[in-house]
Amino acid sequence: MSEFTSQETPQQAIAPDAKVTLHFAIKLEDGQVVDSNFEGNPATFVVGDGQLLDGFENSLLGMQAGDEAVIDILPEQGFGMANPNNMQRLPRSQFGDMVLEPGLVVSFADAANGELPGVIAEFDENKVTVDFNHPLAGKKLKFEVKIIAVE
């Protein structure tokens, strides 16, 4: 137990509907940074507002301003498992003269005329296999956080 005493009110812990300001980094298991705001301004969100996936939010519950952590996020808690039904084989002719290569992100129109990105998985002269899974589906992630404020 610390000898330090403070006149301040006890710190609020992260709970549903709390407004949280934090620095974060999302990394792959090998340490590759997918997204980070440690070099810039912190992000602010309200727990439960849908800005963060539930698995990321749940990992923050109980933390307070000043807390830092590196949290393992399993695919089921993050972007889900890759769904084989999200792999679509399309006619090569649908791509016109486009130069294709594996990993290329192509934008498609979904049923509501919204934008749906797909990643070229493989192709030949007749068919193109496009992966419509989230790029982080099936990946174990490291969620590095530093809590700045909880209101």
From TrEMBL:
Record's keyword annotation contains Isomerase: yes
EC number(s) reported in the record: 5.2.1.8
Catalytic activity from the UniProt record: [protein]-peptidylproline (omega=180) = [protein]-peptidylproline (omega=0)
UniProt keywords, alphabetically: Isomerase, Rotamase
Domain (PPIase FKBP-type): residue spans on this chain: 17-91
GO terms for MF: peptidyl-prolyl cis-trans isomerase activity
InterPro entries: PPIase_dom_sf (IPR046357), PPIase_FKBP_dom (IPR001179), SlpA/SlyD-like_ins_sf (IPR048261)
UniProt-listed Pfam families: FKBP_C
Membership in a protein family: Belongs to the FKBP-type PPIase family.
Protein name per the record: Peptidyl-prolyl cis-trans isomerase
